[in-house]
Amino acid sequence: MTGWQTLFYKEVLRFWKVGFQTVAAPVITAILYLMIFGHVLEGRVQVYDSVSYTAFLLPGLVMMSVLQNAFANSSSSLIQSKMMGNIVFLLLTPLSHRAWFVAYVGSSIVRGVAVGLGVLVVTWWFAQPSLVAPLWILAFGFMGAALLGALGLIAGLWAEKFDQMAAFQNFLIMPMTFLSGVFYSIHSLPDFWQRVSHLNPFFYMIDGFRYGFFGKSDVSPWISLMLVGCALAVVSAIALHLLKTGYKIRH
């Protein structure tokens, strides 16, 4: 087993050993969202013709769970290692910055996909959305998890305290998630908030992911794919640069 594979294995074990907290709890949270919003808005909100609101909501909740847990995996691992001081054992190894990136982002993808699959399987009982284009589902699920895993790396490197990490999550990740169209179509928003939503990369990830289920979306999935790909490239480049320079971990 090579160096990056060992680190990747260790990161996967890290969240899997506490699976009730890292996998089961987000699934239960998504079920509660589905039950509450589905019960209140079913029959009152119709986004797509012939698609119930509960069925419309389900892909958004799956993708939201993927994104939030991918971010939580890499960010929490790094900040805990920094706070506890055990990151020094990683710094002593000859692992390159690319090996760190692959291991941390790879394990984030695994956790995000595991939670997303859990949400999809459990909530399938409430509604059965069609699977019109599965390749789009896989593409946006993988790219979204990778993007948030890389963003979690940046947050974990930047934060020096748990409250800084909480601020990153509460003032950046959560607002961008809830303004991304998880619970509604952005066409139902006022013009100002529609423009704001179009600046939000989370919107394109969820809209493209939802296209894979229904074959319908607010913008073309090709445009979403291009924008998400650009965002992934930029965030990955920043994360790699910070790892290469040892930002806040070597000095």
What descriptors fit this protein?
mainly alpha, 10 helices, 251 residues
Describe the structure.
The protein has helices spanning 3-16, 19-41, 53-84, 87-91, 97-123, 134-158, 162-178, 191-198, 201-214, 221-245. With 251 residues, it is an all-alpha fold. Helix 5 crosses helix 6 and helix 5 crosses helix 10. The radius of gyration is 18 Å and the shape is globular.
The structural class is mainly alpha
Q: Could you tell me the radius of gyration in angstroms?
A: 18 Å
The average pLDDT value, as a whole number, equals 91
What share of the residues does DSSP label as strand, in percent?
Answer: under 5%
Summarize the structure.
With 251 residues, the chain is mostly helical. It is built from ten helices and no strands. The chain is globular, with a radius of gyration of 18 Å.
What does the secondary structure layout of this molecule look like, with pairings?
Elements: H1 3-16, H2 19-41, H3 53-84, H4 87-91, H5 97-123, H6 134-158, H7 162-178, H8 191-198, H9 201-214, H10 221-245
Helix pairs in contact: 1-5, 2-3, 2-5, 3-5, 3-6, 3-7, 3-9, 5-6, 5-10, 6-9, 6-10, 9-10
